[in-house]
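Reviewer 2 asked us to include a model.

Predict the structure of this chain.
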Amino acid sequence: MPNNDAEPTVPIVCPECDTETRLPFSEVADTLEQHNERLHGGEEVAQVDPDIADQLADLVADDLGLL
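Predicted model (structure tokens):
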């Protein structure tokens, strides 16, 4: 049976490193910042999967009544 208390994960992509992974939501910001600082000179190369980020933005905008 799945653990309903498990933290949701977020898909992360880094096109320069040619990597994809999933991180717990609470770790996304710090992990992306550390990765980009260490491997890409601080440039925001690794990021939340753009398709997921767009879907999330649409859901938030809809929830706020902006759409």
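The chain has a mean pLDDT of 91. The two ends are 37 Å apart (CA to CA). We have added this to the supplementary material.
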